[in-house]
Design a protein that fits this description.
Pnp Oxidase, Chain A, binds flavin mononucleotide, 3-stranded antiparallel β-sheet, 40% strand, 13% helix, 173 residues, mainly beta
């Protein structure tokens, strides 16, 4: 590293600044050796349409990430604004997130979150280590959707994401 290298940002400042980037909220579900796992994330990003790829960034040690990588499959469950309790349940550290829940596969290979706004079933395409996170790229095998309003996350809090009522724009990029 050269003496001219600029100092890195303070991690809390980065977290607070990135907290200004509003996101939705999803639960990643998977199953390993017959045991279901799931965790709440907001680091979900669409990467490519041809081929269809998405990515999720997992904190090192996240049990769901380890199970997804070892089983090679996972489902992205995009939460509706009625599912804040689900988001909290699947974010509780050290808990069995599926405890007391009936498993619902809804035609997928791993259990899903019922009533989610969208289910995207993925095969693990690639795993990239990046700092204190593991980036998991998923090849999207199928996607189903339902109508509803999304759960948002902004400034470290759950929020509503409002629609402005104009016609959908068809962006090409
Ligand atoms: C809104 C929200 C977003 C989150 N996003 C992520 C994320 O993108 N990546 C991550 O590793 N943990 C994220 N977490 C924390 C995990 O949900 C939490 O650490 C979880 O308990 C880990 O799952 P595990 O018990 O399977 O290890 C988020 C939590 C919340 C409430």
């Amino acid at each position: 590293m050269s003496a001219m290298t600029a100092p890195l940002v303070d991690p809390m400042a980065m977290r607070q600044a990135m907290g200004r980037f509003a996101t939705g909220v999803a639960v990643i579900t998977t199953e390993e050796d017959g045991r279901p796992h799931g965790m709440t994330v907001n680091s979900l990003t669409s990467v490519s349409l041809e081929p269809p790829l998405l990515l999720v960034c997992f904190n090192h040690g996240a049990r769901t990430a380890e199970a997804a990588v070892s089983s090679g499959r996972f489902v992205v469950n995009i939460l509706s604004k009625r599912q804040q309790a689900i988001a909290l349940r699947f974010a509780a550290r050290g808990e069995d997130h599926f405890a007391g829940l009936d498993l619902d596969y809804a035609g997928h290979r791993v259990p899903v979150v019922p009533q989610a706004l969208a289910h995207l079933e993925c095969d693990v395409e690639r795993v990239v280590e990046a700092g204190d996170h593991t980036i998991v790229l998923g090849a999207v095998l199928g996607a189903t959707m339902r109508e509803g309003e999304p759960l948002g996350f902004y400034g470290g809090k759950f929020s509503d994401i409002q629609q402005h009522g104009h016609e959908p724009e068809h962006w090409f990029f």
